[in-house]
Structure formats: C-alpha cells, structure tokens
Amino acid sequence: MCTVGGEGSHHALATALHARAVGLEAHLLLTPQPHTAHSRATHAAALAAATSVTALAASDPRSFAVGLAAWRERRRGYLIPTGGSCALGAVGMAEGALELRAQVDAGLLPPPRALYIAAGSGSSLAGLLLGLAAAWPDPRARPEVIAARVTPRHLVSRGRVLRIHEELKALLWGEEAPPPHVAAPPPFELLSATGPGYGAPSAAGEEARGWAEGVGFKLDPSYMGKMMGLLWARERERAREEGRAVVAWGTGAE
C-alpha cells in the first residue's frame, strides 16, 4: 500500500498504522514542509510505522509529478491518492453530514447557518457537500459552506472538488440518476488560509488556536488552526446575530 503526503501528514501516518495493523506493507512518499512540534512528532511516528519512507523535494507541481511517477515505478502497490482524496475517501464525510442532521433533528444542537472546513486535497469538502445536500433537501435550510484552503492551489481547487463530487455520485448511485436535490453540489466558498505556506503557522490561526485552548480544544496549526482562524475572522461579529449557529468541522484536531 502506497500513499503521498507532507512530512507531517496525518493521512500518511494513519495509512501506515492501519496497514501495519492488518499485516500490509506501507510505503510513504513524503515532501518537506515547515515544521512545528506537532508536525515533527507526526513525522517521527510515520517513520516508525511505515515499511519505507522516501523523501521527495519537489519545488513545483511538474517536478512533483515526475518524482511521483518514478517512485511508482519502484513501488508496485495500491496507491491511495494524496490525502486520501478520492470518491471512496469522501464517503465518510457524506455520512458525517447525515449524522449532523440527525443531531439537529434530535435537538442536540441548533440548525447551523454556516459550516467551516479545512481543505487540503478536496475529498473531505466534496463528500461534505454531497452529504449536506442529501441531509437538507431544501437548499434554503442548508448551512452555507466555507472551506479554508491550507495547501497550494494546485492541490485543491474548485475544479478538483467538483470532480471528486461527480465521482462520489457515480460511486453511490452507479448508473442510476441521483435524487434531484443532490444532483448538483451546493454553493461553497473556497478561501485561502495558507498564510506563510503549507505547514507554517499563520498569525490568524495561532490567535484562534490560543482561543480554542482556552475553552478546552487543542487544534493542529496546519489545518484546524488555520480553518478556525478564518472562522474567527469572519464570524466574530456575525455570531452575535440572534440564532446564528456556526459549525467548525474538524478532521485534524490534536
């Protein structure tokens, strides 16, 4: 089993750990990134868990593609795309949106007006969009979706998200037509929150992480911290509106 990610990738570590648990080899191709204590610890754990780790110092998308192709020639195994970004990897996020609706219906939380998510490679966002459309057939009742892009633009774009959304529909419905309310993805915003670069903490993210720790949440600086920084900047005043509930969708909390 092979996969690709940054040196501090949670996805790469999870792949190595789960592969080892079921007796499979895990071969990782990791690219360098600015490090924090959190990413260094994640990288060290991946090095210990994986069967092999290859470093790729790619400076641009083309050199990355060339390096990945050369590595794949040597590693003949099932390839999980970067970040698990594929239709199958998006299924869990679609199910999560249905769980959110069930919690709202059970009175456990108010209907959300907005939902924020960190976007690293696109599949989490694509799955969430399909799940929200399924959970809220009436588009007027759906929460607005704001995605914080925390990776370079070539790794996550509107086009990539929409492509994975189409692949997910094909996976779930096959040759059948999906219900009309999930045929098209809901509107969403994809806003840059990369700050100094992938893996490097941003000022807004660190401010938000400090606030979160004060109320009992530990957020990683690369994904959840930057997403919370965007939420904090946009919602600090708007959240005071009566009845406005906002969801911070977490996929990488520490």
Gyration radius over CA: 19 Å
- For the record, the CATH class of the largest domain is Alpha Beta
Strand order of the largest sheet: 3-2-1-4
Tell me the helix content. 40-55%
Low-confidence stretches: none
Q: What is the residue-averaged pLDDT?
A: 90
Span between termini = 25 Å
Structure description:
- α5 links the parallel β5 and β6.
- The model has no long low-confidence stretch (mean pLDDT 90).
- The chain has two domains: 82 residues, Rossmann fold (3-Layer(aba) Sandwich); 163 residues, Rossmann fold.
- α1 packs parallel to α2, α4 packs parallel to α5 and α4 packs across α6.
- The protein is 46% helix and 15% strand.
- It has nine helices and eight strands.
- The longest helix is centred in the middle third of the chain and has 19 residues.
- Strands 3-2-1-4 form a four-stranded parallel beta sheet, with helices on one face. A four-stranded parallel beta sheet has the order 7-6-5-8, sandwiched between helices.
- The protein is of the alpha/beta class and 254 residues long.
